[in-house]
Amino acid sequence: MGLKLNIILGSTRPGRAGPVVAKWLERAAIEHGRFDVDLVDLAEFALPLLDEAAHPSLRQYVNEPTKKWSASVNTADAFVFVTPEYDNFPPASLVNAVQVLLREWSYKPAGVMSYGGVSGGLRAAQVLRQLLGNVNVHALPQVVPAPFFSKFIGDDQVFTPNDEMRSGATLMLDELHKWAAALKSLRSD
């Protein structure tokens, strides 16, 4: 396949529902068949809040969590961020994870799958898309929202999306693949 997709689980909150949603998206991306897929859980990195002294453009990281996070992001050709909505925003853990790096994000496309209540996390997705543009990520207009997402989680803790979510994910993955292939030649490192 060649192109690597990191599905980034943005919530680090205890008791979070994000892993259930992200695991469904991981399966959908694998079945899509156009990417090598890696599910990346921010909670496993334990990133402190912007604790690097040097500007991220210099890549002079001294802290191990930042070094590991940098390596994970650097190896990807594309991203899908799985995010809840907290007070109309993505979680602080996800915002921090984007801001602690810079060059690792450049010239790569990203999609968003959001989940929440009535808005399906769309307000958080819009804020995240703006933030991603500031670190030179091509944020796709296609967002896959999951409104009232808990209705789609069964007793077995498996997320079973509706047809709109499934077709939205397929469209997003199709577009991600096109952009990832096109942008790869622009990256020098």
UniProtKB/TrEMBL annotation:
Please name the InterPro entries in this protein's record.
Flavoprotein-like_sf, FMN_Rdtase-like_dom, NAD(P)H-dep_reductase
Superkingdom of origin: Bacteria
Q: Which residues are the signal sequence here? A: none
- Supply the alphabetized keyword list: Flavoprotein, FMN
Does this UniProt record's set of keywords contain Flavoprotein?
yes
**Locate the NADPH-dependent FMN reductase-like domain: which residues?**
4-146
Q: Which Pfam families match?
A: FMN_red
Q: Which GO terms describe its cellular component?
A: cytosol
Per its UniProt record, the required cofactor names are:
FMN
**Name of the protein described by the UniProt record:** NAD(P)H-dependent oxidoreductase
Source organism per entry reads Xanthomonas hyacinthi
